[in-house]
Design brief:
By secondary structure, the chain is an alpha+beta fold. It has one domain (2-52, 62-67). Helix content is 33%, strand content 11%. The chain is built from three helices and three strands; from the N terminus they run H-E-E-H-H-E.
């Protein structure tokens, strides 16, 4: 949430994303694209190189969190 506010995009994130405390879980199509444009492709690639790629068919705990709202 601090980074979203620092980038001044908190009003551009839709309620399709989720929030739990100080963390936002961005919807992968529109909201994540807003975030990527705000931080730039180079920084995004640096972040993605540190995140493991996992696939699961299980229900996500994130869907139980509150919808994003400021």
């Amino acid at each position: 949430m601090r980074l979203i506010k620092a980038l001044s995009i908190e009003n551009k994130i839709s309620s399709c994303s989720y929030r739990n405390g100080r963390f936002a879980y961005l919807e992968e199509d529109c909201d994540l694209s807003v975030f990527i444009r705000a931080i730039g492709d180079d920084l995004w690639q640096s972040i993605m190189n540190r995140i493991p790629d996992e696939h699961t068919d299980s229900e996500s705990v994130v869907r139980g969190y509150s919808f994003y709202e400021i």
